Structure formats: structure tokens, C-alpha cells
Amino acid sequence: MHIHHLSEQNSVLNTFLSEMRNIDIQKDSMRFRRNIERIGEILGYEMSKSFNFKVATIQTPLGDCVINEIDNNIVLCSILRAGVPLHNGLLNYFDTAENAFISAYRHHKHEPESFEIIVEYLACPSLENKTLILADPMLATGQSMLATFEALQPFGTPKEVHLACIIGAQEGVDFVENHFDKNTHLWIAAIDEKLNNKGYIIPGLGDAGDLAFGEKLQQ
Ligand SMILES: O=P(O)(O)OC[C@H]1O[C@H](OP(=O)(O)OP(=O)(O)O)[C@H](O)[C@@H]1O
Ligand SMILES: O=c1cc[nH]c(=O)[nH]1
Ligand SMILES: [Mg+2]
């Protein structure tokens, strides 16, 4: 797996990450969503450098201009709920991408420490020979990412796969590295130390879906 750990290099990305983690600033859900979206834009920009480009000639008002254009057919798939603002950020830059949505949520069974991943909703175009971007801000155990990828198998074989995340636990990064093809790219803003016994990333930021959209009742 090609791991691109973006906060290894200092940039304005650190400001957005810091605001998302900050227990006071993260209470502003509009800013929290906007920071996810802004990081989505940064992930998209960095990812685009690995795409294929083709030479094209466009006309300006003053003459012909030869430029390199992205030559990938992109399908952007995000995992509900917290993936929605990340999806929007990526779509701000890949504005002609096709789109897929999938629900994958943790269903806590009897003990709070144990959960299973439930996939219920899936809307997806053909993935055959396309560039698939799987977007989810949090990569904790990595199980949602893998469950999503497996649920997408009937829609075709993508030419390349990119995982777009904001914060991952080292354990989740290792998990996707072990379960995805070695040519897969992981674009991730920060890699944190560990998971706690409820599967939350430490230090992480808390529950990204709840911070973005409010707390939900457990089913
Ligand atoms: O790597 P994993 O251990 O699978 O955990 C990561 C998942 O947890 C979060 O979603 P959550 O289940 O909280 O749903 P939500 O976005 O609706 O809050 C997050 O957005 C990922 O989808
Ligand atoms: O730390 C975590 C783990 C999973 N999902 C979140 O939103 N946060
Ligand atoms: Mg959540």
C-alpha cells in the first residue's frame, strides 16, 4: 500500500486538524463540517498528483494553449454519515466525478466494547476500470472501509483504489494495509497512536458523525 501521511509536512492542514480535535472548537458543528470539507479538498489536491494526465489543446481568447488534463474516470464513494462533508470537499475539486454512497455503521451489541459493521444502504454506478475513491474521515479498526469495499465488488473492478481519511489509528492503517491490494493508495492527514477498548481513536477527536450531525439514539 502507498501510504501518504500528509501532516508529516507542516502546512495549513495542521490548523484544520487542530480545530477538529480541539474540545472547545469542535462544538461548533458548522466549523467541524467545514474543516472536514477543507481537508477533503487538500486530500483531493494531493491525490490528483498521482493521477494520469493527457495532453489537450484548449483555446484561450488569444490563442491555443497546450495543457495536461486529468485522464481518470473518478467514482467518489463516501461512507455515511461522517463521510458526507469529506465527500463534498473531494467533489469540490473533482467536480465531474460520479458518486456512490454507502451506509456502514457500528452496531453495538450487548457489551459496549463489541460491535459489528452494518451495511444497509448502497447506491453506486459501474466501477469497471475506474478510479475509486473511498472517503471516510475516521479509520479506526479499518472494518468499515473493508466492509464497504467488499460490498462494492458486484459493481465492477476499479483500475485503481484510493482511500481518503482524516485521522487513522495505527491499527486501522495496518489493517487496511493487510487487506487491500498493494497498489492501493491511502491519503491520510494524521495517524494516531492507538484505539481505546470501545474502538475510538486515541487521541483522535471523538465521534466524527455526532460532531458533524448531532448525537443519534442507539438502535
Ligand atoms: O474503522 P472502523 O472501526 O470501522 O470505524 C470507523 C467508522 O466509524 C465512524 O462511523 P460511525 O460508525 O461512528 O457512523 P456515523 O458516521 O454515522 O457516526 C467513521 O466515520 C467510520 O465509518
Ligand atoms: O475515534 C473514532 C472511531 C470511530 N469513529 C469515530 O467517529 N471516531
Ligand atoms: Mg459515529
How do the helices and strands line up, and which of them pair or pack?
Layout: E1 2-5, H1 13-21, H2 29-48, E2 53-60, E3 63-70, E4 74-80, H3 83-93, E5 98-108, E6 115-123, E7 131-135, E8 138-139, H4 143-151, E9 160-169, H5 170-179, E10 185-192, E11 194-195, E12 201-202, H6 208-213
Parallel strand pairs: 1-10, 4-5, 4-7, 7-9, 8-9, 9-10
Antiparallel strand pairs: 2-3, 5-6, 11-12
Bound molecules: 1-O-pyrophosphono-5-O-phosphono-alpha-D-ribofuranose, uracil (URA) and magnesium ion (MG).
Residues 82, 138, 140, 199-201, 204, 207-209 line the site of uracil (URA).
Please provide a written account of the structure:
By secondary structure, the protein is α/β, with parallel strands linked by helices. It has one domain (2-47, 72-213): 3-Layer(aba) Sandwich (Rossmann fold). It is 30% helix and 35% strand. The protein has 6 helices and 12 strands. The chain has helices at 13-21, 29-48, 83-93, 143-151, 170-179, 208-213, and strands spanning 2-5, 53-60, 63-70, 74-80, 98-108, 115-123, 131-135, 138-139, 160-169, 185-192, 194-195, 201-202. The strands form 3 sheets. Strands 1, 4, 5, 6, 7, 8, 9 and 10 form an 8-stranded mixed sheet that branches. Strands 2-3 form a two-stranded antiparallel sheet. It has a two-stranded antiparallel sheet with strand order 11-12. Helix 1 (13-21) packs antiparallel against helix 2 and helix 2 (29-48) packs across helix 3. The longest helix is centred in the N-terminal third of the chain and has 20 residues, at 29-48. The chain is globular, with a radius of gyration of 18 Å. The model has no long low-confidence stretch (mean pLDDT 95). The structure holds 1-O-pyrophosphono-5-O-phosphono-alpha-D-ribofuranose, uracil (URA) and magnesium ion. 1-O-pyrophosphono-5-O-phosphono-alpha-D-ribofuranose (PRP) binds next to strand 5, strand 8, helix 4 and helix 6. 1-O-pyrophosphono-5-O-phosphono-alpha-D-ribofuranose (PRP) binds at residues 79, 81-82, 104-106, 117, 136-144, 172, 199, 207-210.
